[in-house]
Amino acid sequence: NPAKRHHVRFWRCPDGWLLPGGTRVDWLAAGTFDRAVGFSLFTLQITHKIDENTDIERDHIVDSLLHAGSGARVHLIRDFASGYHARNGGGDTIQT
Q1: What are phi and psi of 12, to 5 degrees?
Q2: d(CA 11, CA 28)
Q3: Res 41 pLDDT > 70
């Protein structure tokens, strides 16, 4: 339903594109679990409110791709970023 949903976007990277630190990637993705509809703390517009622990949704997306026969491969980049705690564009607390 519109209030509760898995939401993911994928972006194809240009050939030879590198992440900070030099790791080559073919695709990037961003995923959230939308837990409700509410108002943005910053714009007061209606938006989706997301689950705070974005790692749970990341793991769900990766597992779904790996078990769907998509041919997707996953490579863990160790120490890419330290723990991250902040807010998204709608003002929701996020943690990864």
Answers
A1: -75, 130
A2: 5
A3: yes
- As a whole number of angstroms, the distance between CA 38 and CA 58 comes to 23
CB atoms within 10 A of CB 50: 20
Residue 32 · residue 4 · CB < 8 Å: no
Q: What is the pTM of this model?
A: 0.74
- Locate all alpha helices (DSSP H) within 14-94, ordered by sequence: 54-67
- The model's confidence at residue 81, banded by pLDDT at 50, 70 and 90, is low
Using pLDDT thresholds of 50, 70 and 90, give the confidence band for residue 8: very high
Report which of 58, 53, 49, 57 is spatially closest to residue 85, judged by C-alpha positions.
Answer: 53
- Rounded to whole angstroms, the Cα distance separating 3 from 10 reads 21
Q: How many residues does the chain have?
A: 96
Give the list of residues 6+ apart from residue 79 with CB closer than 8 angstroms, or none: none
Task: Give me 77's structure tokens.
Answer: 């980049």
Q: Please check whether residue 35 is in contact with residue 4, taking contact to mean a CB–CB distance below 8 angstroms.
A: yes
